[in-house]
Design a protein that fits this description.
Layout (H helix, E strand, L loop, with lengths): L1 H13 L12 H8 L6 E3 L4 E3 L8 E3 L6 E3 L56 H20 L7 H14 L28 H4 L21 E4 L12 E3 L4 E6 L2 E6 L5 E6 L6 E6 L5 E6 L4 E5 L4 E6 L6 E7 L2 E6 L3 E6 L6 E6 L5 E6 L5 E6 L4 E5 L7 E3 L6 E6 L6 E6 L5 E6 L4 E7 L4 E6 L5 E6 L6 E5 L4 E6 L6 E6 L6 E5 L3 E5 L6 H12 L1 H8 L2
Antiparallel strand pairs: 1-2, 3-4, 5-32, 6-7, 7-8, 8-9, 10-11, 11-12, 12-13, 14-15, 15-16, 16-17, 18-19, 19-20, 20-21, 22-23, 23-24, 24-25, 26-27, 27-28, 28-29, 30-31, 31-32
Length: 541
């Protein structure tokens, strides 16, 4: 039965609205006893003062609250020097004994609706634990005086210890909450403190916002291109440094002047020959044409006449690339020819590294390396003057038509695979390793690098038929440009590097201003063109 009584005492001690029957007497009550007044009791949290018939004011103020409670006091009598004071509230938190003088200072009373009772902030207080510790300490202090601890059984003491451990989160009551004897344990591997900023002394350093630019989602201009061959392996578009756009439509070649919008017919082949590839020389006055019969023709665009015909290939010439006075041509047979256009015997070298169509061919900006992609899913890197490949990459799973060199890093090559591959890969041609690859989910037909931003753009066929801008070197997607209803076959870059033109199987040519330059940068570019020597001098350090 003793443990049941202990449970009852514990529940009674933990009740917040009950009467406190145990515990040390408050100071004001002990003082009243010393002065010969009968014992006062404390009732609930409002603390009503119940005095005996010898001394009972009409209204008393609780020592712990600021409220006043009226009561009858038949035995109070008159105060010396004062008249009767029925119903007068006690101004101080103390009980005045009979015969004691009342302080002369008057304190205004507080109405009931404006109580000044102190209410502590309990948001950070563990009431359950604090009450338990308070009752335990009171019982221990009272038990030592009255000898109650001697009557506690072993079972009750164990029960108290278990209760103390539970209320103290399993810690012994003598254990300190904060201990500085040993260092804090190390956090687990990979743990990230999301509230670290709350404990930092200085201001957190926020990353600077990256500058964004507007990329139009619609083309600047759309041109009709009837009879544009829907052939993945051909290159039927090229833009010269003189701002002339050459387009091959069937057996004819047309030149569109981007300055005034005029269109000129440059060449017309006899049936059954057709144009397979176009490429402007760097100066922009000579256009090379690859013919289906296996010959390569050079045309003077200004005079609109044929300058030279160079034979040698046994099948159609699908791709062309200039390197100063050397013109390289790739054929369906898998061979690559080097033509020196300055001499009569133009055929100076043959590169045999592919077994199927050579559908991608580009010289690096410094003219030292040549990249070729073929229908055999291979990418070959050739050094100038060598007839054996420096590197051969076989990671692509489809034909490689998209081949493009980075303009600011001569050894960086980007390649894209066809429908079965749909992947863009970045190659370091010095070490022969792939440094980055990204899946595009569409056939890759062409790739261009920007000369103003660290970005590249790719043209896609099945199944999305879109243009995609990528951030280098992370290859994060910047934007998608859609509008073509057929697969994109070829991309070309304008001379100023701001406009990208795309030719697609829907027989349209669309111009996208995706790399626009700010006015300040544009002025610097124009100044560099007008004063190349002064700009070169400023760049030398």
């Amino acid at each position: 039965m003793s443990h049941l009584q202990f449970d009852a005492n514990l529940r009674e001690a933990l009740r917040m609205d009950g009467e406190l029957t145990r515990g040390p007497l408050p100071r004001w009550q002990r003082k009243a006893q010393e002065q010969g007044i009968n014992t006062l009791t404390v009732n609930n949290e409002n603390s009503v003062l119940n005095v005996s018939d010898a001394c009972s004011p009409r209204s008393a103020k609780t020592p712990h609250s600021g409220s006043f409670i009226d009561g009858k006091s038949p035995g109070w009598g008159k105060s010396p020097g004062r008249g009767k004071s029925p119903g007068r509230a006690i101004p101080k938190l103390s009980v005045r004994a009979p015969g004691q003088k009342t302080p002369s200072r008057k304190t205004p009373t507080t109405p009931r609706n404006q109580q000044d009772r102190f209410i502590p902030n309990r948001s950070t207080t563990d009431l359950e634990r604090s009450h338990h510790l308070l009752v335990t300490s009171m019982e221990a202090s009272g038990g030592e005086k009255s000898g109650e601890n001697d009557d506690l059984s072993l079972q009750q003491r164990e029960y108290q210890e278990k209760m103390s451990e539970n209320l103290n989160d399993g810690q012994v009551t003598q254990t300190r909450i904060l201990s500085f004897k040993s260092k804090a344990p190390q956090a687990k591997e990979g743990y990230v403190n999301s509230h670290k900023v709350l404990y930092s002394a200085g201001k957190p350093v926020l990353p600077k916002a990256t500058s964004t630019r507007h990329i139009p989602s619609v083309p600047e201009k759309v041109l009709d291109a009837p009879e544009l061959a829907n052939d993945y392996y051909l290159h039927l578009l090229d833009w010269s440094m003189n701002n002339r756009l050459a387009v091959a439509l069937g057996s004819s070649v047309y030149i569109w002047n981007a300055g005034d919008g005029s269109i000129t017919a440059l060449a017309q082949l006899e049936h059954p020959d057709y144009i397979c590839s176009l490429s402007w020389i760097k100066e922009g006055n000579v256009l090379a044409m690859g013919i289906s019969s296996g010959v390569t023709q050079l045309w003077d665009a200004a005079q609109q006449k044929l300058v030279r015909t160079m034979a040698g290939h046994q099948d159609r010439v699908t791709t062309l690339s200039w390197n100063s006075y050397i013109l390289s041509s790739g054929s369906r047979s898998g061979q690559i020819f080097h033509h020196d256009v300055r001499v009569a015997n133009h055929h100076v070298a043959t590169l045999s590294g592919h077994v199927q169509d050579v559908c991608g061919l580009k010289w690096s900006p410094d003219g030292r390396l040549l990249g070729s992609g073929g229908n055999d899913n291979q990418v070959n890197i050739w050094e100038k003057g060598s007839t054996t490949p420096l590197h051969t990459f076989t990671e692509h799973q489809a034909a490689v038509k998209a081949v493009a060199w980075c303009p600011w890093q001569n050894n960086m090559l980007a390649t894209g695979g066809g429908t079965s591959d749909r992947t863009i890969r970045l190659w370091n041609c010095t070490t022969g390793t792939c440094i980055k690859d990204v899946t595009t989910n569409s056939q890759v037909s062409s790739i261009l690098w920007s000369s103003h931003y660290r970005e590249l753009i790719s043209g896609h066929g099945y199944s999305n038929n879109q243009l995609t801008i990528w951030k280098y070197p992370t290859m994060a997607k910047v934007a998608d440009l859609s509008g073509h209803t057929g697969r994109v076959l070829e991309l070309c870059l304008s001379p100023d590097g701001q406009m990208v033109v795309s030719a697609a199987a829907d027989e349209t040519i669309r111009m996208w201003k995706c790399w626009a330059v700010d006015k300040k940068d544009k002025k610097q570019i124009e100044a560099s063109k007008n004063h190349p020597i002064s700009v070169l001098a400023r760049t030398i350090r």
